[in-house]
Amino acid sequence: MKVSILDQSPVSSHQTPAEALKASMQLAKAGDKLGYERYWIAEHHDLSGLACSAPEVMLGYIGAQTNTIRIGSGAVLLPHYKPYKVAETYNMLATLFPGRIDLGIGRAPGGSAEATNALSDNFLQQVFKMPELVEELLQFLDDKFPAEHEYAKLSASPLPPVSPEPWLLGTSKKSAELAARNGMAYTFGQFMSEQDGSAIIDQYKQAFQPRQGGDQPYAIVTVSVICAETTEQAHLIATSSLVWKIQQDKMEAKGVLSIEEAASYPLTEEEEKKIKKMKEAMIIGNPEEVHERLQEVQARYGADELMLVTITHDPADRLKSYELIAEKCKK
């Protein structure tokens, strides 16, 4: 089973953003040693408890301290940016770390309305132009525009020996269709969706049009996972991120709570129901249970690879979760 890491670089209570980013680097180094396929880091803006607003900066830091694991963005929020600049940035990374760079693209704002306005003008118009933005970005990555195009003589320098691999990330049929039409690999964010992901991935694979001769459809499903030595311990650790999400919904969140802080947080009956529903969408358990559930997800979705996102208060619990999963999945 191919497994990868999605890191949202969570900031725990009583932890600084600098400490959270260093913990992200340690997670990437561990993933490299444990045999994970890839490590992606997410882009968020002005969201309390999430430290990474610039994946491209973290990837330079992480790439220099890892060896073989593929590294990338999960995702660059393309409507905020010009495709040329994104291509330049990721070509630069691919020049520094040949054959290891993934360029994940998304269309979400990644933060508040105020952050969106501060980042870009006419964000919604850019979202509507997403197909054109993606096409332009791919042409810059391929260094291939039609002769009559205004950018025909323009390159997104430096041109690397191996181009970044473009991915489209999403949770809808629209994103799957866009990935298929452009011959891109696709990642479905099951951890943040209530859509029927298996139908969406089926649609993606059936509609896939190769961008280059040998391209084949390739789909990742991203799931929220917490693994510990025992089932009870895993559920206890999970309370931190679950209660933190309740706080986020109430605009009260400052950092991922400790287990003790989460246990003492007063929950309403409605919030208890929300937590129960969130747990049902997650994979929580001991290594045997988690491995079995991952196999079920892979089979149900027809996924080529699974990407795991794990948020805990203690970075050591997060590392342990990935270690236990690697031991089972890499046998």
TrEMBL record:
CC terms in the record's Gene Ontology section: cytosol
Enzyme class: oxidoreductase
Keyword Oxidoreductase included in the entry's annotation: yes
One GO MF term: oxidoreductase activity, acting on paired donors, with incorporation or reduction of molecular oxygen, reduced flavin or flavoprotein as one donor, and incorporation of one atom of oxygen
Cross-referenced InterPro entries: Bact_Lucif_Oxidored (IPR050766), CmoO-like (IPR019949), Luciferase-like_dom (IPR011251), Luciferase-like_sf (IPR036661)
Signal peptide region: none
EC number: 1.14.14.1
Keywords: Monooxygenase, Oxidoreductase
Residues in Luciferase-like domain copies: 1-300
UniProt keyword Oxidoreductase, yes or no: yes
Pfam families cross-referenced by the UniProt entry: Bac_luciferase
Entry similarity comment: To bacterial alkanal monooxygenase alpha and beta chains.
PANTHER family, sorted: LUCIFERASE-LIKE MONOOXYGENASE (PTHR30137)
Protein name according to UniProt: Luciferase-like monooxygenase
Taxonomic placement: Bacteria, Bacillati, Bacillota, Bacilli, Bacillales
